[in-house]
Amino acid sequence: MKKLVFALLLLSTFLGFSQEQTVHSIYFDTDVREIKQLQSEAVVHFLSLIDTTRLESVSIYGYCDDVGKVDYNYKLSQDRANSVKNMLVKKGVKYKIIVKIEGKGKVMIDEDLEENVPEARSKNRRVDVVLNFKPFVVEDLNIPGLYSTIRKNAQEGDRIYLDKLLFDAGSSKLKESSKKELDKITILLKRYPKINVEIQGHVCCTPTFHKEAIDSGTRKRELSKNRAERVYKYLLTRGISKTRLTFKGYGNTQPLNKGSEYDRRVELVITKI
Q1: How many whole angstroms separate alpha carbon 147 and alpha carbon 149?
Q2: If you compute the radius of gyration of the chain from its CA atoms, what whole number of angstroms results?
Q3: Which fold has domain 138-272?
Q4: Across all residues in the chain, what is the average pLDDT?
Q5: CATH fold match for the domains 16-133 and 138-272
Q6: What DSSP string runs through 57-102?
Q7: Could you tell me which residues come within 8 angstroms of residue 35 by beta carbon, excluding any fewer than 6 positions away?
Q8: In what order do the strands lie in the sheet containing 98-106?
Q9: Of 46-55, 96-105, 143-152, 264-273, which gets the smallest average pLDDT?
Q10: Do 81 and 103 meet the contact criterion of CB atoms below 8 Å apart?
Q11: Average pLDDT of 172-191?
Q12: How many other C-beta atoms can be found within 10 angstroms of the C-beta atom of residue 272?
């Protein structure tokens, strides 16, 4: 049995902070209700990767597999949730933001439909920690020259942080929601026709000996460049002249030093007014 598996169920993972909810799952052995040291250390590591200043509320849900009596499993699932709650409070999570601690009991499976019944049951012996975040505001990073949109009094060198531009993990394919955000930028670029921009792609969390991440579509280390190029090509389709646009992938070479989740981003940098 695995000691711990934890998963971030992010709907999209290019700009993690644009996600307003993250789920962290902690898995338990059969009939075990107390969180182990290894699991606790992994949760601490997980918490170190998120922006806890934006953490608004925490909900904790315990589950069991479908073996055993109903009443026993309800209590076991509640005990697991309480064990995780106690650990989180001990590690510094404020109790007042933990809004729900609930045991859900057993999760039923259909043995005829499951290819691997033991594995399916192991995934149901878990606690889900649901983290809800306050909306992200680019200006709250307090980085000079970094803005959430093109200003009326824009200057050369202004950096427009597209915090709602989302990509699936490892992908450079534009999502429909991202196209809507780019349509808003298109309106502004047409309003200010003298503005030229460089579209910059950035990634994080790659090994230090790799400056770029792998694009799952091409299987090459060109993810930040490909994402920037996708944005470039989309703006062209919306009527923005290519003479006003350039694009470049910077990989992991320009971190904001505000946390790794902020380094997965696309920026527009104003190069000419």
Answers
A1: 6
A2: 22
A3: 60s Ribosomal Protein L30; Chain: A; (3.30.1330)
A4: 86
A5: yes
A6: EEEEEEEE-S-S-HHHHHHHHHHHHHHHHHHHHHTT--GGGEEEEE
A7: 26, 43, 80, 83, 84, 87
A8: 21-27, 126-133, 55-64, 98-106
A9: 46-55
A10: yes
A11: 91
A12: 10
CA distance 109 to 4: 21
Q: At what angle do helices 176-191 and 223-237 cross, to 10 degrees?
A: 60
By CB neighbour count within 10 A (0-12 exposed, 13-18 middle, 19+ buried), where does 260 fall?
middle
- Could you tell me if 18 and 163 are in contact, meaning their C-beta atoms sit under 8 angstroms apart? yes
Split at pLDDT 50, 70, 90, the class of 136 is: low
Average pLDDT over residues 120-136: 89
Q: What is the pLDDT of residue 210?
A: 84
Best CA proximity match to 26, nearest among 11, 12, 46, 10: 46
201 with 249: CB under 8 angstroms?
Answer: yes
Angle at 39 between CA 37 and CA 41, to 5 degrees: 70
What pTM value is reported for the model?
Answer: 0.57
Whole-angstrom distance, CA of residue 94 vs CA of residue 169: 31
Q: Is the pLDDT of residue 177 over 90?
A: no
Q: Provide the residue type at 62 as one letter.
A: G
Which comes out higher in pLDDT, residue 130 or 256?
Answer: 130
Residue ranges of domains in the chain: 16-133, 138-272
CATH number of 16-133: 3.30.1330.60
Per-residue pLDDT tens over the stretch 34-86: 999 999 998 888 888 777 777 889 999 999 999 999 999 999 999 999 999 99
Give the containing element (helix H, strand E) for 48.
Answer: helix 37-48
